[in-house]
Amino acid sequence: MSEDRSSSNGPVHRTWLERLAMAFSGDPRNRGELLEQLREAETNDIVDAEALSIIEGAMQVADMQVREIMIPRSQMVCVKSSQQPKEFLASIIASAHSRFPVIGDSMDEVIGILLAKDLLPLILNKVEGPFEIKNLLRQVTFVPESKRLNVLLKEFRATRNHMAVVIDEYGGVAGLVTIEDVLEQIVGDIEDEHDVDEESFIKQVGDNDYIVKALTPIDDFNDAFGSEFSDREFDTIGGIVMQGFGHLPKRNEQLSLQGMNFRVLNADNRRIRLLRVSAD
């Protein structure tokens, strides 16, 4: 006799996966229907908003290419193979990154990856004698701009690499991408050395490229960007952006206001948290 899971012993406690399966009245015929059912499940408290966001992000990476999330060439912090530590340590410390492409005579000649931690023995042990950066380099991985993010993530996991240099159609360096950049498309913004700190509302991350907290007061935003957003209806730039969308936007939704592009980096089912701002 089969086990009766709804016996008199009390209510059945199902996992969220079991409840999710029960919520589906039939198999979805396409991705759109699947997402619709998942969002309905979130509305009915079968899955929480964070789980739904992760599922949506995981589905999204299969449609995205490296060029959509890479750090462009102009924003790369590189070390030249001809430099001595005293010549590049300042930029390494200022950037606070953990990995750096090492180049030869030009940006298009990437010969390896330098890990900041590999420089610690030079500082702690005060190593004397000629410095050979080539002895510290890790192998560099090159990927095309068109590579799908789900494929790249699988390769990162298989090779245990955390960074890849992105190559354009002509074989030149277009930028770089890290495993964190891919994971952020799934789980949302990961706080690290690039994020806005607790005391700051706005942080510049490149030429005409900024990360902005949605709670930034409108007056502060206008002062920083020379914009003229009104504070009559809203106190924060997040309120202005929400009004512009006309709905609560999800991660990576974009719109233009007053000649500026706003992309949502982080949001939940109640409010926007973080924005990426640049000129159109």
Summarize the SSE layout with pairings.
Blueprint: H1 16-23, H2 31-43, H3 49-60, E1 71-72, E2 79-80, H4 85-95, E3 99-103, E4 110-115, H5 120-124, E5 142-144, H6 149-159, E6 163-167, E7 173-178, H7 179-187, E8 202-206, E9 209-213, H8 218-225, H9 237-245, E10 254-257, E11 260-267, E12 272-279
Parallel strand pairs: 2-3, 5-6
Antiparallel strand pairs: 1-7, 3-4, 6-7, 8-9, 9-12, 10-11, 11-12
Please provide a written account of the structure.
This protein is α+β, with helices and mostly antiparallel strands and 280 residues long. It folds into two domains: 67-187, CBS-domain (Roll); 202-279, Uridine Diphospho-n-acetylenolpyruvylglucosamine Reductase, domain 3, CATH 3.30.465.10. Helix content is 31%, strand content 21%. The protein is built from nine helices and twelve strands.
